[in-house]
Amino acid sequence: MLAEIKGLNEECGVFGIWGHPEAAQITYYGLHSLQHRGQEGAGIVTTDGDKLTCMKGLGLVNEVFGNGKLNELSGKAAIGHVRYATAGGGGYENVQPLLFKSSHSGSLALAHNGNLVNATQVKHQLESQGSIFQTTSDTEVLAHLIRRSGHIDMKEAVKNALTMVKGAYAFLIMTETELMVALDPNGLRPLSIGVMGDAYVVASETCAFDVVGAKFERDVQPGELLIINDEGIRSERFSMNINRAMCSMEYIYFSRPDSNIDGVNVHTARKNLGKRLAVESEIDADVVTGVPDSSISAAIGFAELTGIPYELGLIKNRYVGRTFIQPSQALREQGVKMKLSAVRGVVEGKRVVMVDDSIVRGTTSRRIVNLLREAGATEVHVRISSPPIANPCFYGIDTSTHEELIAANHSVEEIRQIIGADSLAFLSVEGLLEGIGRPYEGEFKGQCLACFTGRYPTEIYPDTVLPHEKV
Amino acid sequence: MLAEIKGLNEECGVFGIWGHPEAAQITYYGLHSLQHRGQEGAGIVTTDGDKLTCMKGLGLVNEVFGNGKLNELSGKAAIGHVRYATAGGGGYENVQPLLFKSSHSGSLALAHNGNLVNATQVKHQLESQGSIFQTTSDTEVLAHLIRRSGHIDMKEAVKNALTMVKGAYAFLIMTETELMVALDPNGLRPLSIGVMGDAYVVASETCAFDVVGAKFERDVQPGELLIINDEGIRSERFSMNINRAMCSMEYIYFSRPDSNIDGVNVHTARKNLGKRLAVESEIDADVVTGVPDSSISAAIGFAELTGIPYELGLIKNRYVGRTFIQPSQALREQGVKMKLSAVRGVVEGKRVVMVDDSIVRGTTSRRIVNLLREAGATEVHVRISSPPIANPCFYGIDTSTHEELIAANHSVEEIRQIIGADSLAFLSVEGLLEGIGRPYEGEFKGQCLACFTGRYPTEIYPDTVLPHEKV
Amino acid sequence: MLAEIKGLNEECGVFGIWGHPEAAQITYYGLHSLQHRGQEGAGIVTTDGDKLTCMKGLGLVNEVFGNGKLNELSGKAAIGHVRYATAGGGGYENVQPLLFKSSHSGSLALAHNGNLVNATQVKHQLESQGSIFQTTSDTEVLAHLIRRSGHIDMKEAVKNALTMVKGAYAFLIMTETELMVALDPNGLRPLSIGVMGDAYVVASETCAFDVVGAKFERDVQPGELLIINDEGIRSERFSMNINRAMCSMEYIYFSRPDSNIDGVNVHTARKNLGKRLAVESEIDADVVTGVPDSSISAAIGFAELTGIPYELGLIKNRYVGRTFIQPSQALREQGVKMKLSAVRGVVEGKRVVMVDDSIVRGTTSRRIVNLLREAGATEVHVRISSPPIANPCFYGIDTSTHEELIAANHSVEEIRQIIGADSLAFLSVEGLLEGIGRPYEGEFKGQCLACFTGRYPTEIYPDTVLPHEKV
Amino acid sequence: MLAEIKGLNEECGVFGIWGHPEAAQITYYGLHSLQHRGQEGAGIVTTDGDKLTCMKGLGLVNEVFGNGKLNELSGKAAIGHVRYATAGGGGYENVQPLLFKSSHSGSLALAHNGNLVNATQVKHQLESQGSIFQTTSDTEVLAHLIRRSGHIDMKEAVKNALTMVKGAYAFLIMTETELMVALDPNGLRPLSIGVMGDAYVVASETCAFDVVGAKFERDVQPGELLIINDEGIRSERFSMNINRAMCSMEYIYFSRPDSNIDGVNVHTARKNLGKRLAVESEIDADVVTGVPDSSISAAIGFAELTGIPYELGLIKNRYVGRTFIQPSQALREQGVKMKLSAVRGVVEGKRVVMVDDSIVRGTTSRRIVNLLREAGATEVHVRISSPPIANPCFYGIDTSTHEELIAANHSVEEIRQIIGADSLAFLSVEGLLEGIGRPYEGEFKGQCLACFTGRYPTEIYPDTVLPHEKV
């Protein structure tokens, strides 16, 4: 919901399991715990060793699989997917997993989190060879590459196909008899494996393991291909060109606070970012408040370090659903608010530090600063627990185009004026790296910082399109 | 949602407006901000000066009034109601406002928050005089009393009827030409009035005023009857037997943190309760966490006073809707969780203070203590920011029967063992009164404490029924 | 559906059963067979001897009771109701049966087919005595009268109440332990009883008996009150002022062709009307066609007597549902048609006799004549198997007001010109009586002919309102 | 609906238009008039000259495009499709038109009525070349063939692809700038073109032209490819091996009575079949009745020729929708009926001729004979207006397998005994050909009679699958 406010949208979440009699049910709960990664659609494909069965639809996990429909999905293994909410485009066709049935060579189901940067080129090439596409999704590209690889052995076909796609991807690929799991050579998206009795599970975030009662085993490594079947699990490499660059926004904004990424707890990382921010940009104030939900941890950290009391200065309405009626322009001007309310009893007459995790277009920040002033705040100091986002993301996060990014076009002082704050400070890139505190060396220190620095860990092609530009 | 977990359910919320061209829209937003007070059904009645129009239905405010249906409600004034979720009973018939059409004496719409303690008796009496009832709601009783009062003047008829009902009530009564607002002589339920340009608004909580852009004017007084029409607003008394006893659970649990009740901000009151609790029951620990959402403020206060860091140790899943599929017994035992997750990265290896606002049946507390232990907490100290609930509520809060209340049947030490905590402490009644800090003298110090002390501010009749016992 | 086209709407249909373990299911199928009598809403109330349970909703029987909801209705007896589709007004509140719960004197469920002519007066009187009304339905009036009768014995209370209402009614009245069935002293609405093993059934039309596998026993008599309970069935009289006047439109238009009314099969009656019509208004033509569905029987009779071949010259689209999208004005002018199509292959170059059962406002007739001409008919001769409707109905059929009735304001020749026919003839009143052929003597010969003749079998009050005038 | 009873299901219906500003609306009404050809799903693709837009879904045309959704489909041209109801399989993926988007060579939308007999083989071949399939529909095969043809010119690519598929097909193929229309060399499925001002329309049945106000131009010829674009219409041949064999069941059962196929009106053809049947199998009886809706015309013809009165002896319930609740076994045995009722008032004590259009499995016939006997018929003589169906259909009609066809396994006398009729007669093949009366010479006399004679007009491959056998 708040995602809509901010203009930051995650692409997707994936979950898979092999070797459990209630595979579809487990996947349902797993997807449910990943619902924050995508609300537009959801799907599950199961295998009973013999046949793949697919169910998917537009809407929340609850809506797609409610009313007993889940019972139609039997089998010992499953993969599932939640898809993000985008304004235009999309629709049912793009809901994943995609299922490709073949009359003689077995079926293939694919679920993908991420974004390929050379999808357009590969697609052109495939089409000139006679391939036809029914979706605008990158995943379909991989399916064609697998089928056309010429390899009879499925594993080799997949490895071969993976070498031809560039960008960010966590792939789950399931046939009647195998589950394959692949992560791109930069490890741009989180992906972990766990165990649950005799079953293996795989998920975009570790919170899914806690929810289904599985035990975290380890993170999938960049460039790794895992093959899971009734004989067990096998790890192979499909690329030697490894350079870890985990998406920083996963720590800052997207992932659930109870997930661990690469061994670092997300809530703790955010709290540390808040502390670093407090060190970097001191301010004298009466109360600290965070923009719910994603900035709460950073705000707590900020308050803890500065000793300024942490308060619930902003309240999010939990009942703003998709059918919510927008107020008319007249009512909006009269002050009808939804989604977020400032707590007058807390901020009236106070100097407020408002901690937020990021600024994308600036419109939300301006609105919140305004809310706080209307509720009586005498000063509003905005502190952002990440550096300015000045570059678009090509790896699966819908951060808007270059033109819309306020930090791509304005100085910090200009942004302060635009959003109407008394002061404004962003966290530094160094502060970000140290706050997260992962032990990586090398070119990117283990983090993708492209949206802040413009240094992309992969090649970017002239026709690489942003997710929301696809139709 | 959590309400369901806990077994504590608010009865309702009401909102009214007189003198605004978009009365129904404003009421919609007002009800939306009161949605936490009732999720089973919602309704709005408008008047255009000539005719009352009603729309209501089962479901959330969004669902009942979505798809353009709101536009069918025109008029300059409106009253609305949200109704709480109860297991059995209920259904469409009991969704409010109730509308009574009369062919010769004008129509009457009623919305009610609270519970009457002599409804059964009055109903018996009315039925023996030939009245027939279509609902099981107390509100219908008041309508009959008004119509049978013999007074031709509506205001006198209402005042007369009000003297015959006992218990807790905030009533909105609307005819074609007038809006009447009444609060019971103990002021058991919150009710405030505000202004919005030339219009008057009235709401169960002040958060509704902030959301619609209205200015808070004052709280409705116990025993007060307000008459609002095109000429303005008039205040009268219908009872001289005033003894303020505001429901304590409104501060502790029900109201939104951004509401002010009787001049006291709810979040601030809760934070103070957390501080008092910390003073009363010290503990040495590593982290403080609150049970979301209602206990967050108290946990912050507890952390602030003790200096123990406040952390997000428990996460609530925002997407648990009504259609959520419950895991099978087998899966539940395997550890499939929903709604609430413990954050392993925060609690593992830590001594945890878990602050909660209340314990009703104890089952939820036991489950949460268990969650924390499974996530690696070495000690779990439960601190409750209210006294033990040992008596049922007859005034509109569905606290379960005497048999189900754990504190009615067990000592604190027994409860500690049942929920499996390393230590357990409740706030004292004095701590509660001081924490809230309202300036009342007199028998009840301005607060209803009946659920803690058993001293009810009104007479209780032998056949007074709990809300969930009605069929 | 066609009802909408024509502007003729039946009020309702009722079904009841006593003494069957699957009472609700049987009632569901019974109501389903009466669906043509009302499509706006449906409801069922069951009793298990101890408690009445109600389920109702807007929509078709299928929609209201689908998805397993029917299983919630247990008990050995039930009454049900289907309600007609009216433009404005209505809504959930008026869906029947109405259920009145009483805390000390037992509950009461009522289902009503018909219309009371003195409802407004009785309501006024009741309101002046303090009664309040939640619906605009006449049924609620009867409930008040029963409760206020002063009689402790239910049967006496009902008889007393029935003497106070005037007009057309078939009432089903159910308490926890009894089913009462009453028909007005003129027997204006059809109502029959049957047996089904040990159970008794009652229905608006005998087609319901065939559908549920019950055996027709006899028609309920005008002024009769039947009391059915676990001891059996008992017949009493509540009025001595009997004068049978069965609604003629039931034969002509409303009832299902497979129903028998007063011993006369509806299809056969219609076919006879078609034959009489052929005798009264001969014409030389090539084909006979009927307007589906209600005029098919008359058309067959017309063809049979004249020897002119009967053909399917008009086809009704079976899939025109409530969500059907109306064509824009531009498309309508271009000729986009729905609901009804003329069969070019049948009427092209032919002189066509178009048999219809009635003309209300004339707009539909004009449209159908036009359809036939566009499809190539060289002549269109309209034959109506009933007399001109020149007077409104106050007994439960929504025939529009006096102003809208074309035959109230125009001669036959004028109507012919308005609808654009080459010739037009109506059946005579004598032809109608003979065609139906019921063996009654007396003032009305057993038939209500008021809409044709203006002679109403009951008193009509100055403030008697037409059904669609209620709000 | 009755289709379900009988076990005969049409595959689909198609509609297309080029050159009208309200193309989607027109297509909606066109599809609506073809709804009897398929009720499982519906879809429309429009082009605005630049981009193809698709909307489709499961359900009736009304349901898929209701609630204003149609407005999202803009453009000057459109193709649409209705899909038949099959028990298993199917689902959203197979709803047509299928849309294939290409990033560099333009998009392609396809709608198909019919069934290919060599789909399995072609699919195998394509898959071995790397093609992947997302649906089980034959249409996807054609899309692959078009894309892989190697021809740059779209028209040539389509012609080339058409030569590779065998079986029955009416194809609509739309790109951004062209609408192509193709009919198989045997012309097994009906397909006609019409004009509507400057626009061209194409439809499976001519009834669609009458509904949208278009003028019938001519039938599409077997082996013809029409290319329609902004310059006009062009006709080409893609096969020289023409041998007309129109599906006989279109005349007998499927098409709407108001459609003309190959110049012959369907109602008239059916009436003639009824007359021929009367000549071939005389019988002495009191009434003739037809099984609604498809056998009404034949029954009228039978009655007309014999002079036995035609009556409505069987009534179909119009409100049996998809959500209808099936009676339990116990209730079914007690006689609860739905869908079809016998009219006791018509058949009691009579010798009844029951005319039906066909017998597939015999179960429906047995049930209807039984219905008539229960309603009092003294004799039931069944007359079938087509020859015995003894062979499965591979061309798009779901007639069940060989094992299920009663006439494939039993003599006429055996069938008579099974269905419990007093006498039974089928129409002869010669009677069928003469009754329809089309002026064709040659091998098949213009009609496909394969289901009666076993002589299929195309080759049948060992792995040709029946429609309902696809998964």
Short recap of the structure:
With 471 residues, chain A is an alpha+beta fold. Chain A folds into 2 domains: 9-243, Aminohydrolase, N-terminal nucleophile (Ntn) domain (Glutamine Phosphoribosylpyrophosphate, subunit 1, domain 1), CATH 3.60.20.10; 265-444, Rossmann fold.
General description of the model:
The structure is a homotetramer of 471-residue chains. Chain A is 29% helix and 25% strand. With 471 residues, chain A is of the alpha+beta class. Chain A has 2 domains: 235 residues, Aminohydrolase, N-terminal nucleophile (Ntn) domain (Glutamine Phosphoribosylpyrophosphate, subunit 1, domain 1), CATH 3.60.20; 180 residues, Rossmann fold, CATH 3.40.50. In chain A, strands 4-3-5-2-11-10-12 form a 7-stranded antiparallel β-sheet. In chain A, strands 6-7-8-9-13-14 form a 6-stranded antiparallel β-sheet. In chain A, a hairpin with a 4-residue loop joins strand 3 and strand 4. In chain A, helix 5 crosses helix 6, helix 9 packs across helix 10 and helix 9 runs antiparallel to helix 16. The longest helix of chain A has 15 residues. The radius of gyration of chain A is 23 Å and the shape is globular. Chains in contact: A-B, A-D, B-C, C-D. At the C-D interface, helix 2, helix 3, helix 7, strand 17 and helix 9 of C face helix 2, helix 3, helix 7, strand 17 and helix 9 of D.
